[in-house]
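Sync notes, pocket subgroup
Present: LS, DG
LS reminded everyone that the earlier model was apo-only. Rerun requested with 5-aminoimidazole ribonucleotide included. Inputs:
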Amino acid sequence: MTEEVETLIADLEAEAERDRPAAETPDVGIIMGSDSDLDVMMGPGEGGDGRPGAYDALVEELGFAEQTSYDDPPEARFTFETYVVSAHRTPELMYAYAETAAARGLEVIVAGAGGKSADLPNMTASIAYPLPVIGVPVQEKSVDSVIGMPQGAPIVAVDAGKSFNAALSAAQILARQHETLRERLEAYHEGLQADVGAVSRELHEGGTPAFRARREE
Ligand code: AIR
C-alpha cells in the first residue's frame, strides 16, 4: 500500500471515531472506481459534453454542497463527499470506506464503476450493509457485474450511466427524514412536468415543421 492510500484509510478511521452532529457530516458518499469515471458519475461540468450526473442533480437541482473537509462542513444542510476508490487497485481503501461509512455519518452511498469487473458498488454494498448503496454501472458492459448479487446481499442500482438518477434516489432515501428535501424533490418533479407541458403545447400548436425549425435555431 502506498503512503497516500494509507493516509486516506487512517483519515477515514479517525473520522469514524469522532462524534460530529449529523448536520455536519456528509449525507451522501459518492465513490467511483477511477477518475476516468468522473464525467459519467458527476456530469461533464460546465461547457462539457454529455448527460448530467450526480453533481448536477445534487447541487443544481437539490441545493446540496460538496463537503471537501470532514471537519469544516459547508453551510448547506445537505452535503455529499466524493472519492476515487478502486475495488481492485485499492481493495483496502474500499474496505475502509465501506466499513467506516455509517460511523462517519453517511446515510447512503452512491458507488460507480466501469468495465466488466465493476465490483466497487456490490462489494461496498456488502461491507457497508445495512447502509443503502446505489450502484451506477458506468458502462453498459458493467450492468451485470453491478446488479448480480446473491440472495441476502442487496444492492439498489440504476441503468448504465444514470448517476443523475442515483443521486435522486439517494435524496429520496434522505427525504424520508427531511421534509425540506421532500419539498425540493417535489419542486424538481414539478419543473420536469412544466417542461413537458410547455414542449407539448408548442409542438401541438405550432406543428411539426415549425417545432423542428425552432429546435434547429
Ligand atoms: N475499475 C477501477 N478499479 C477497478 C475497476 N473495476 C474500473 C473503473 C473504470 C475502469 O475500471 O471504474 O470505469 C477503467 O479504469 P481506468 O482507471 O483504467 O480508466
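DG: The first helix runs from residue 3 to 17.
LS: Residues 33-34, 36-37, 86-89, 113-115, 117-119, 138 surround 5-aminoimidazole ribonucleotide (CB under 6 Å).
Action: DG to write up.
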